[in-house]
Amino acid sequence: xxxxxxxxxxxxxxxxxxxxxxxxxxxxxxxxxxxxxxxxxxxxxxxxxxxxxxxxxxxxxxxxxxxxxxxxxxxxxxxxxxxxxxxxxxxxxxxxxxxxxxxxxxxxxxxxxxxxxxxxxxxxxxxxxxxxxxxxxxxxxxxxxxxxxxxxxxxxxxxxxxxxxxxxxxxxxxxxxxxxxxxxxxxxxxxxxxxxxxxxxxxxxxxxxxxxxxxxxxxxxxxxxxxxxxxxxxxxxxxxxxxxxxxxxxxxxxxxxxxxxxxxxxxxx
Length: 269
Ligand SMILES: [Zn+2]
Prior knowledge:
This protein is α/β, with parallel strands linked by helices. It is 37% helix and 14% strand. The two termini are 27 Å apart. The chain contains eight helices and eight strands. Helix 1 (7-19) packs parallel to helix 7 and helix 3 runs parallel beside helix 4. The protein has a single domain (7-256), classed as TIM Barrel (Alpha-Beta Barrel). The longest helix has 29 residues, at 228-256. Bound molecules: zinc ion (ZN). The site of zinc ion has 6 residues, from loops.
């Protein structure tokens, strides 16, 4: 059996979903054509927090399996026009992974202006009709709060990955576990939580085999799913480095007594 949180294990997960009759759809595809009664749908969402290259590998695997997924790129951290175009050519949807309230430290008018500017930069490359908030559990701001003061239509958008799927059961690989425990911000507001005992991908496969749920949304961060042992060792090393950097930031902050800086690396949600 493939090791967990590898591209090989992700292939097992995709095949299991397809075997159980779940049709993978993009977020915009779902919003444009809500499903008929009785059909099963899964939205495979990928937040490209760290590595457009690893996202492309996942996009190629999905193409091979006949799957359409939705990839959210950050600006400017993973805004890679070549990778974005390649993702579109593989049949996927690309959206904007926004973090404007974090960047502006909660300044709402400035955040909405920045949202418009960054969205325009994406639209120079490809059409964008859906967005997804970047988590940043250490940031005091919840980026989704901009929608308390704006409508999707103001930006010609159809929806938001956290906010537009209230009837979907949401799973996230944050923290290399599927369990919702402790994922306060990385969850659908007012949505249902998946069973807490589902931790590993094997747990998830067993659950998918017996569930009667018809609407699933899976947030899979490509950088957590490297191919093979070499890649896995590298990704774990990257996690270690990220934690080291964060620890240093926290210590510096504690010394200065200052709040989080918008530049603080945060690649986890
Ligand atoms: Zn993110």
